[in-house]
Amino acid sequence: MGVKELKFDELCISDNIKRALDEMGYEKATEIQAKAIPEILAGRDLIGQSQTGTGKTASYGLPIIEKININDKSVQAIILCPTRELAIQIAEELRKFYKYQPGIKCVAIYGGQSIERQIMDLKKGVQIVVGTPGRVMDHMRRRTLKLGNVKMVVLDEADEMLNMGFEEDIETILKDIDDTRQTILFSATMNERILKVARKYLSELINIKIKAKELTVENIEQVSLDVKSSQKDNATMRLLDAYNPTKAVIFCNTKKKVDDVFDVLKTNKYQVEAIHGDIKQMQRDRIIKNLKNGKTKILIATDVAARGIDVKDLDLVINYDVPQDEEYYVHRIGRTGRNGNTGKAFTFVSPKDRSKISSIERYAKTKLKPGKIPTQQQIEEINNEKIFEKIQTAINQGEFSDSKVIDKILENNDSALVAKALFKMISATPKKEVINDVVPNEDGDVKLFISLGKRDKIMAKDIVGSFTTNVDITGNDIRKINILDKFSFAQVPFEYANTIVTQMEGKQIKGKSVNIEIANS
Fold this sequence. Notes:
Blueprint: H1 15-23, H2 31-41, E1 46-49, H3 56-67, E2 77-80, H4 84-97, E3 106-109, H5 115-123, E4 128-131, H6 133-142, E5 152-155, H7 158-163, H8 167-175, E6 182-187, H9 192-201, E7 206-209, E8 220-226, H10 232-243, E9 248-251, H11 255-267, E10 272-275, H12 281-293, E11 298-301, H13 303-306, E12 316-319, H14 326-333, E13 343-349, H15 354-364, E14 369-371, H16 376-397, H17 404-412, H18 415-427, E15 445-450, H19 460-470, E16 481-483, E17 488-493, H20 494-503, E18 508-509, E19 512-513, E20 516-518
Parallel strand pairs: 1-6, 1-7, 2-4, 2-5, 3-4, 5-6, 8-13, 8-14, 9-11, 9-12, 10-11, 12-13
Antiparallel strand pairs: 15-17, 15-20, 16-17, 18-19
Helix pairs in contact: 2-3, 3-4, 6-8, 10-16, 14-15
């Protein structure tokens, strides 16, 4: 049964909220909003199956704002979600909704940010708290968050919270809240674990299910590659070399695998960053910012860490691991091929993953085309084709300035030989330069000696993190990293070499004192 199209000005919400929605460009409610908002406003418990991007935040956020008693400065609504990124995103959106509704305050509380700062915000009086279960529990133990007056609870992305092991935390939090509360649960997927939670904590619930968004595949080339686990790193580098993406995301299923792939790509001089649940918030913010503004070309991420990250101009997605849930596949590859642009999505498939691919194809109503890993010869041909396109574009544009040098060259040489020589020059590496007796290699990089190695339990990400924290450089400025048993080497652009050596003096890497020098050639 379809749902009647609903405009926001038809909802029983205040004019101030409608004014904010109008300013944000909200006119017609999405399907989940049209179905959920009236039920939540009526005070009913609700379970909603709806994926990211369908307008869930407004579905529960607008009723929450409408029901807040602005004369009461205690916490009246709490929203639990799995990640700090999502907590920040929800809080920011809620603030936009109540922009013209004076007297309402919302705070996001999550790990990775100073708890003292959060305590100060809570002491000022807030009615809406958005938080990750772990940090909410921290505040409850400190008695800096009191939930005795909470009237509404939202469990957003409940499936992810359960997958991350937050079930006991959620139970502890809900036990501290009066049973007369209104409880709303949203989940992208619906399985027996979710239904068990719903039956336990929701009463006389309304069940709303939004049909999963079908994958728009017109602009996405989906390819499956039969790859053994031992071949995945090499296959990843071949794809990156062949397609030279403006921006790419590589998805792994575990934090450890993200770290492993990061080390391999960083060691091989790719502009790469990584995010997962153990990366500190300040570093995550920097990484996401660099990806959006183009300073970083390649991001390696877990599904949960990538939630809420919207990156424009993403032209390549690599599923290093087949996703654990069919829904994740839709989320992953749906990030490319947007706004009329074309995108490519490659999925590495081992023999044990073949049945998962069939399940994904049925769920997403799509088909993955079998492909092959590009050979080195194909990569060279692709790169040569790109050079040809640049030259042809220059020819088509014309408007050349007269040059006696060109005339002289053509007088003495066959034009075909001249073209070959110019092509060789275009493909050649820059000439070495010498600054302060430092000789860079053919790529313009200088090798640094680092007095820590594998026995110190140092990884590439630790070196990158320390350098970017203590020196005004980005992760992309650090090239090849080679970690040996007792020491390591890192290649950096020659113009940064002396700065890094100077500014890292007296600093530490992973809590260990370090000596950094320009390596002898």
